Amino acid sequence: xxxxxxxxxxxxxxxxxxxxxxxxxxxxxxxQVLNTLVGITDVFLVGHLTALAVTQLGYTSATALxxxxxxxxxxWLVTVFFMATSIxxxxxxARAKGAGDIAQANRVLRQSLIVGVVMGLxxxxxxxxxxxxxxxxxxxxxxxxxxxxxxxxxxAIGFVPAALLFIGNAALRGMGDTRxxxxxxxGVNVTNIVLSVLLVNGSLGAPxxxxxxxxxxxxxxxxxxxxxxxxxxxxxxxxxxxxxxIRPDWDILRRIVKIGAPSGGEQLVFQxxxxxxxxxxxxxxxxxxxxxxxxxxxxxxSFLPGMxxxxxxSTLVGQSLGAEDPREARASAYEALLQGGIMMTVLGMIMxxxxxxxxxxxxxxPAIAATGTVAMFIAGMVQPFLAVNFILSGALRGAGDTxxxxxxxxxxVWGIRLPLVMLLLYLGFGLTGVWIAMAIDFAxxxxxxxxxxxxxxxxxxxx
Length: 463
Prior knowledge:
81% of the residues lie in helices and 0% in strands. The protein has 463 residues and is an all-alpha fold. The chain has one domain.
């Protein structure tokens, strides 16, 4: 098998490896920050509706937060399809890059984007026609349902180009290019922030649209980013040159599905459990769910290093295996875990020291901030476990070992988190009990991911 000049040499020193991981991971971390900021912007702005906006719109920040939060649960559910394709693409493209087969990488990109268009159309239909049923299934209160439906209907319009954005960025990362996705997501965020600031509270003479304004900003920003990225790939980027040949390549499609289907199943299992889980949280109160949603969004910032380093681990493991160097694959994954774990632990300590201050930054309602303080403290405690799970699971996916994370979700989320939540809510622990159950679940997932990676069985996976 031919190897490319960019593949890691077997004699790479620890310092060289550290720099290589940093060079890939830091732009990926920044990209994850920017991707999450789209949702954070929505939460921040609808959590700070002005008195004039509340009067004109007829709903409070707490109701708006609940509506946006529940709608985003459904957005994440449809994103599962995009994620499955992107994981298969990253693994195959990284192997092709490591083997020096750029033509094969281009074929995988083309087939992945074809699948993305199909999945985007299915997701659009789901978000358009099933939004009311989805909101009721999540246990939304009557005042919350129309807000969630409005948000989901608008965001669904941009699902096709959003799928292309998601998959195109993943393909570039498989080639080892984490800077282009960063710059694309920077543009997405600038667009989203400008539009949302104008439209949520009606700044600079714009109409006051509240939840609808946040949705419009997100849809235009992500949709525009997807269209721009496809244009960039057609012009040529990082070895890619996208053609308009839409003929299916069944062998490549089969391999994408073989790798991606377990990841899609993993996310379906997780999101399915999450929908049940959210139903428990909404059953406590609207204020409790609003607080939970704020904590989740703040926490999402803290585990972004883990997600970014998972991207680096996935890319480096795939490229090293493509270059037939499993020893370098293992060493790179552990280096990514070391760097990402340190970052996440530091962020977790900040969450534990300043929980109420962080809550107050993101929501103006004192009742919501107070309700989420203990949950924020617990979220800080679990950051080291999240680092292990994210980064080593990313390494497994880069090797094409996507079944193990699926098994982990079945065992831990369905077998541990949900039963614990039911028990602790029955005992009267409220939102604190919810987060205790989540913390135990995260610790178990971390242990299972570490055991699997340490066993080395991922080295023999055929993609």
